[in-house]
């Protein structure tokens, strides 16, 4: 069985929904994971934000606007008659439910329920569409088998235990439809895998049932060797290892949700990145194998803050770094990059909600400097210890750009450079011109 995930753009209109059958083969065993229609999750986030603030009038107006959009989707997607009536009933049910929430006490629990409506709508409407054209399918509610634990980590054994009987129940059926992104938490409440989590859903399902492969269908033909929005002449990469793909996803390659690599890597399930608009394009295969001896791609991650702690107490002191890291752990703030000298340590974070409190505690160790508006530029490839010349080539490519930090050797797959965000575009283009010349 294969897992096929289609993002919001791929189901962004009735026309695109209909064209999915150019890709989906109803004769093959597959689970199709759908995101919400493009724009829907943003609208739901806005609705939820208004309700959390108590702006009920504005929330109701937004709900009505989105409802009207879905009325138009039903009219275009489904033929007049019973199927259109079914589709309209589904849409009315979900929007009446949203309207009902505007009359009740609204908390973060209801917020997660609101965000789930997009995927519930897209999957149910697509299921009805398939019925209307005589294509058999089974709609599997993700809330019955997708679960995260008390640490917000996915529970793959739970998914295996609850999904396998469902597939057995509908044995003989080949096409299954389910929701991406949404799940239940350890309390049984509706929750989600965070933004971009439909990729993660697909990867987790692949791991849970040991699928043949996971296919992530988006609007771009695979992972590119640089950001095509900034750099001209980028090319898709035919093959990446799981480690290389994880580095690129984490450091800014938007095509893939960063966490989605790990379940597939653990269970050795190949992941294929493909383009809905160009189904015949080769795309990118992510697997245990990789081309050796070459630089693969460049990615950039914005919104980085650099923190430098300088202290004479650090000199020859054991336990110093542990005490520094404990502060970040206490405030649940992940660290991206780190470099050290005898009397200073520099590190970067992208979550700054607790920055003031963190700096206050760090001040007890020595002087603290903060640099905001930074960007991590990550160069990914085969940087094993036995390789030579690659690091020099990377650094030579940006010798005219001020570099705040360099991280090399923490992984055999990347060199990370911290530059001011104002220098990001020049850094990406300069690296591309010299590395991929």
UniProtKB/TrEMBL annotation:
UniProt keyword Repressor present: no
Superkingdom field: Bacteria
Chain ranges of the Aspartate/glutamate/uridylate kinase domain: 2-275
EC number of this enzyme: 2.7.2.4
Keyword Nucleotide-binding listed: yes
Keywords: Amino-acid biosynthesis, ATP-binding, Kinase, Nucleotide-binding, Transferase
Domain named Aspartokinase ACT: residues: 377-433
Pfam families named among the record's database cross-references: AA_kinase, ACT_9
Family affiliation: Belongs to the aspartokinase family.
Protein name per Swiss-Prot or TrEMBL: Aspartokinase
Species for this entry: Pedobacter albus
């Amino acid at each position: 069985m294969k897992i096929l995930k289609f993002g919001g753009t791929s189901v962004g209109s009735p026309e695109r929904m209909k064209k999915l059958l150019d890709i989906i083969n109803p004769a093959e065993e597959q689970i199709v994971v759908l995101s919400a229609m493009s724009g829907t999750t943003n609208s739901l986030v806005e609705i939820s934000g208004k309700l959390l603030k108590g702006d009920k009038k504005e929330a109701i107006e937004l709900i009505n606007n989105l409802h009207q959009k879905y009325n138009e989707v039903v009219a275009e997607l489904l033929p007049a008659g019973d199927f259109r009536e079914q589709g309209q009933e589904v849409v009315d049910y979900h929007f009446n439910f949203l309207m009902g929430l505007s009359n009740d006490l609204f908390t973060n629990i209801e917020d997660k329920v609101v965000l789930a409506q997009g995927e519930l709508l897209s999957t149910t409407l697509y299921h009805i569409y398939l019925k209307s054209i005589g294509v058999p399918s089974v709609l599997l509610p993700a809330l019955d088998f997708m679960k995260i634990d008390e640490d917000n980590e996915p529970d793959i054994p739970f998914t295996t235990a609850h999904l396998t009987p469902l597939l057995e129940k509908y044995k003989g059926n080949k096409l299954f439809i389910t929701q991406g992104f949404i799940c239940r938490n350890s309390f049984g409440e509706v929750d989600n895998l965070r933004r971009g989590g439909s990729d993660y859903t697909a990867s987790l399902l692949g791991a849970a049932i040991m699928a043949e492969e996971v296919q992530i269908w988006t609007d771009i033909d695979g992972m590119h060797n640089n950001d095509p929005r900034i750099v001209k002449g980028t090319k898709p990469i035919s093959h990446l290892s799981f480690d290389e793909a994880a580095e690129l996803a984490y450091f800014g390659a938007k095509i893939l949700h960063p966490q989605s690599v790990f379940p597939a890597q653990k269970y050795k399930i190949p992941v294929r990145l493909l383009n809905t608009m160009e189904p015949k394009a080769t795309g990118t295969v992510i697997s245990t194998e990789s081309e050796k001896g070459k630089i693969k791609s460049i990615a950039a991650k914005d919104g980085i803050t650099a923190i430098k702690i300088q202290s004479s107490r650090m000199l020859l002191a054991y336990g110093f770094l542990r005490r520094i890291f404990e502060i970040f752990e206490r405030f649940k703030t992940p660290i991206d990059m780190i470099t050290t000298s005898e009397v200073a340590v520099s590190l970067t974070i992208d979550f700054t909600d607790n920055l003031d409190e963190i700096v206050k505690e760090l001040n007890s160790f020595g002087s603290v400097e903060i640099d905001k508006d930074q960007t991590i530029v990550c160069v990914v490839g085969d940087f094993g210890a036995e390789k030579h010349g690659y690091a020099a080539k990377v650094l030579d490519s940006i010798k005219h750009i001020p570099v705040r930090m360099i991280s090399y050797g923490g992984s055999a797959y990347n060199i990370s450079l911290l530059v001011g965000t104002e220098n990001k575009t020049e850094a990406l283009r300069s690296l591309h011109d010299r590395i991929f010349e």
